[in-house]
Amino acid sequence: MSIRVLVADDQPIVRTGLTMLLDAQPDIEVVGAAADGREAVRLALRLRPDVGLFDIRMPLMDGIEATRRLAGPDVTDPLPIVVITTFDLDEYVHGALKAGARGFLLKDAGPALLTQAIHAAADGDALIAPSVTVRLLAAFAHAQTPPPRQPVEPLTAREEEVLVPVAQGRTNNEIAGELHITPSTVKAHLASLMRKLGARNRVEVAMWAHETGRI
Length: 215
Description:
The protein is an alpha/beta fold. It has helices at residues 12-23, 37-47, 63-71, 93-98, 111-122, 130-141, 157-167, 172-179, 183-197, 202-211; strands at 3-8, 28-34, 51-55, 81-85, 103-106.
């Protein structure tokens, strides 16, 4: 079964390039392409893709608002959305993640990382570009005024150990190798972290780690 993807970017050359990269993968199919956030929301509701790949800076409706409408806290059946952006220009990635985005990539991400992000989102996971995770999340965490929420139960020592590499953008397999445990054990600890923190995905877990000074 192919993963059905909706691409949204206001630059035709970027939109075409992303579509070609994804369509070249044997198990990914681009089912729609939008030039702005409003069109992205309309197409998503009509086509029901498995994953959305959205730029942040778009006319009529930006990627943050489009993400909020399709994946926000009040959405019953949220669409997994990966935000693709340019760090040096975008100041809104934290807002996109708060709005429900599953992860983010830089626009210069290669086909391998792009494919990994699509698969992760489709599997209910998230991929954060490791090269910008700490710099980006830490920068925006310090700008937040509300105090970070407290876990409903104290974190265990092992959950604290898993939390740090999650916030650094490591995959489950990488974390398993570092901590000498199985990937399924990492997944179980991550599920417990999400439950205790009231987080919907590992992106929100990573944001909480930065907001509480664990990174």
